[in-house]
Design brief:
The protein is of the alpha+beta class. It has three helices and eight strands. The strands form two sheets. Strands 4, 5, 6, 7 and 8 form a five-stranded antiparallel β-sheet that branches. A three-stranded antiparallel β-sheet has the order 1-3-2, covered by helices on one side. The chain is globular, with a radius of gyration of 15 Å. The termini are far apart. Part of the 30S ribosomal subunit. Contacts proteins S5 and S12.
Amino acid sequence: MMNTDPIADYLTRVRNAIKANHRVVEIPASNLKKEITKVLFDKGYIANYKFDDDTVQGTIKIALKYNPVSKVSAIRTLKRVSKPGLRKYAGVDSMPRVLNGLGIAILSTSKGVMTDKEARVQNVGGEVLCYVY
């Protein structure tokens, strides 16, 4: 199966797993998806992750994070911004603020995949991959 937008597929799989209240979601791996997963884990949006390199491509197993009392997911919205048909880039001066600073924008920069806040600190711009809040 050839996928035209693997990042959108990644976000959709996570979104669908949250809607179905799954604990774990499996996603085909790529280096960019692994970096996005690390950012989500560092910012506390997912409970844990594991990279399985058993097959040729490998998989990413993501343990989703829910509130123990209300059973509400830590991730409320995952939104793809830059698409293959229309790429969205942001410089340091035009960096997006997600939910007035409460959410994060994940960017692919020349210094690696990072959040909008980290990109401002390092004074780099890049492609805005997605919004998470």
